[in-house]
Amino acid sequence: MTIDRVVALYETWGRHTYDEELTQLDHGLQTAALAAADGADEALVVAALLHDVGHLLALERGDRGPAPDEDLHHEAVGAKFLGDVFGPEVTAPIALHVRAKRYRCAVDPEYHEGLSDGSRASLVRQGGPLSAEEAAAFERVPGFADAVALRGWDDGGKVDGLEVPGFGAYLPLLERVRARPEGSRR
Q: Could you give the domains of the chain?
């Protein structure tokens, strides 16, 4: 797996929608722009850009969307797929961003009211808000804060027609952040 493979996924499938009115590409670009505007580190900006790559993999497989009660676990699929190219500083927030939504719904009832229709529908498929015990356990997971931050940008990155930098603007960042062999990481 290479960065070129990731780019090809977005070029081929990024114009499709998935649970939202916005295209996957536009959603990823907006989410990354929000992360960058908030001063997130480079790895977290990459995670924001690629957080829904699991949806693109589902489209590539021919899945046109989940059945009403089916969770395709796009967060786990995407994190695993990206693990050959990026380290855990990118893949962990991706793997946790759905649980972060479930967490935020559990600890802040107003948060649920602000979710898009697509996020509300997927929340049901994903198990609904965490229980109090699950929420407390999630707060102790390494990377919890990054996942919650990613979730906020994810929720904000759903504005039709918002102009943000294109995917090409992130290519140097993807190269800088990609996993290096042990011992050569910067």
A: 3-177 (1.10.3210.10)
